[in-house]
Amino acid sequence: MVTSLSNINEFIKLAGLAQIALAIGSLVIPQILGWKSELPKVRPLIKQIFWTYAAYIFAINLSFGFVSVCCYRELSNGSRRAMLLNGFIAVYLISRVAIQFLYFDRSDFPAGTSAITKLPAPPFLPNDITSFTTHSN
């Protein structure tokens, strides 16, 4: 039991470090996707909402990482609070990855970049993922 709890604690710390790396890595996304040239095309309110959401996402990713690195024992103690927080983090991250790979249209990703977002969709999905959201007349 001690060995498996130790493994869980190490996994939680590693996941936290990965989450922090993801948050830090996300700071280059505006440059890669050319937000500076794209955002002036939208109304000021849309731009403000966009930056607010980007800041929330960054803060959440960074916070989940620090909570996992600093409070790994508390996250693995089996308490109701730990289970709820772990569940929330899992739902958030699974949703984030699902949206990234199943919803985002990666066809116009900037040429010459090699990022994880350019990985092909899983083979069980159609080539044009937008077929899930478009309707034909």
What would you say this structure looks like, in words?
The structure is a single chain. It contains six helices and no strands. It has 137 residues and is mainly α. Helix 1 (2-25) runs antiparallel to helix 4. It has one domain (2-132).
Overview features:
single chain, disordered C terminus
Distance between the termini: 59 Å
Q: Beta-strand level of the residues, as a percent range? A: under 5%
| Count of structural domains | 1
* Total beta strand runs: 0
Helix percentage range: 55-70%
Low-confidence stretches: 116-137
Envelope shape = elongated
| Average pLDDT taken over every residue | 82
* Main sheet makeup: none
Compute the gyration radius: what is it? 18 Å
What's the helix and strand layout?
Elements: H1 2-25, H2 29-32, H3 35-38, H4 44-70, H5 72-75, H6 80-103
Helix pairs in contact: 1-4
In short:
64% of the residues lie in helices and 0% in strands. With 137 residues, the chain is mostly helical.
